[in-house]
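During the second half of the funding period, the structural biology subgroup turned its attention to how the target accommodates small molecules. The most pressing case was adenosine-5'-diphosphate, which had performed well in the primary screen but for which no bound structure existed. We therefore specified the complex as follows and requested a full 3D prediction, including the ligand pose.
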Amino acid sequence: MTDQTTAPLSETATASNLSAAVQDWATALGREHVLTTEEEVSNFTDPYAPASTRPLAPAVLLPATVEEVQQVLKIAQDHGVSVWVNSQGRNNGYGGSAAAEVDTVVVSLRRMNQVLEINEELAYIVVEPGVSYFDLYEAVRQSGKRLMIDVPDLGWGSVLGNALEHGNGYTLNGDHAASVCGMEVVLPDGEVIRTGMGALDGAQTWHLNKRGFGPSVEGLFMQSNLGVVTKMGLWVMPRPEAYFDGWLTIERDEDLEELIDRFRPFMLDGTVGNCPSIFNPHCALSTKVTRADLWDQPGPLPQDVALSIGRSQGLGAWTMRFALYGDEAVVARHRQRIEDAFASLEGATVTGSLLDLDRVVLESEDLDQKQKVQAGVPDLSMLKMLDWDGAPGGHLSFASTVPLTGRDVRRIVSLVRTEQESQGIDYHAGILLYQRFAIHASLLIYNLDDEARYQTVRDIYTKLVVEAARLGYGEYRAHVDFMDLVSDQYGHNDHALRRFVTSLKAHLDPKGILAPGKQGIGSSRHRN
Ligand code: ADP
């Protein structure tokens, strides 16, 4: 296998090869679709980095078709200029539209924004990269088809981009990468492939059967720099008859282990098929108010103060949101089983309401964000959290995967909470439950004008990545500035996995023009 030090090189975008490339791109795409002024390109950076630390891309390209994507890559190859591809580019908290390396031209696929298919009979959709959750939701709603899409907390991102990054939502299809079925991909040399059954001309099951003939390669294009995905099929849910919007609160922090361990059987046996989330009072409060509204002392809002304010608003030391779907009898039975399991845990409460999904989908405006997302209705109100430290705000997401046991969840909570609070940073935690593991996500919020705090947050993040990895808990996703660091933790057998992917990269993209540094592959650190 290729050694790390011989990873593909991308030539530096020198002034002359860059300007020649820009000219060729302007000819291929039209001058108006090649952005080069500071004002234009500044919309395609990391919006959560302080302005003084935001590197600007040398240019931004806006192709509108698969053929134009092919041309973009060909011209990049010809001139040895590297490109970083976004779909909507709303990957905020992980770098937004920004590339991992300076001198990388940004390609935004926002103009490729067609919903190509909405199939009610077999419950799937096919989208182009620029389709946002709002676009898809509107298209499904207007089609009148009884389908329910899955949305993440913020609905402005790309459906396709979020799935590629292993993003999550809160319905039965909350694991977005797992819902992907059938992709079209442009390889770095411009070749177009269709994955799985799509390789069969006239295939009838491209978006129905995840496998095809031979090795399954879709995963190679997720969190990857091996190709540009231009179409994607995703499974969605038939809109169920009943939706129970469930809430489970525990009064005492020390019962978190019990919460996880008593709930796990319902995840394993399918009683709860959605992706429940558990949050602490800081997290819940920050969706409504700022710290200054609650606390006028320096330093983080203390746990006990947050807890008592939270209590007055019906929150627990930890509050879980979950959904039950099905017909009313099934939902009532499942709800009863969950209530029975927690009846003997002092201070645990199960509440919730049965919502009419047709009404939720058609008249979503009067619902809370938390009820909406489990019904597949996109929303942006969670952006309020960023104001916690005063606007303009930003955040880094520190998000580790741990086994779905009370013991492991406690371990990551203790590690992250202790480190953050010792550095004066509030602990806003959300724990997302999958069938066998959880993602513990801590939002490290800062005010963009406070560069010292921004640096503190980055230092905490750096330390936690290493300490969590020591416990066997890896990050599921990383901000572009930390991709090398996170990739370094995945070092089994002298980084054999990274060397394997690097050898594929060297073969598919020998000049390393596509997204150098993405997930720590082909970064300049390795080249040097
Ligand atoms: P979102 O708007 O949903 O947050 P982005 O468009 O920001 O998603 O994409 C997130 C990341 O996924 C990008 O930084 C890029 O690395 C990768 N990505 C996005 N779109 C594509 C694509 N069409 N092909 C390959 N990689 C992509």
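Two results from this model are relevant to the next phase. The two ends are 19 Å apart (CA to CA). Residues 85-91, 109, 129, 157-158, 160-162, 164-165, 228-229, 515, 518 surround adenosine-5'-diphosphate (CB under 6 Å).
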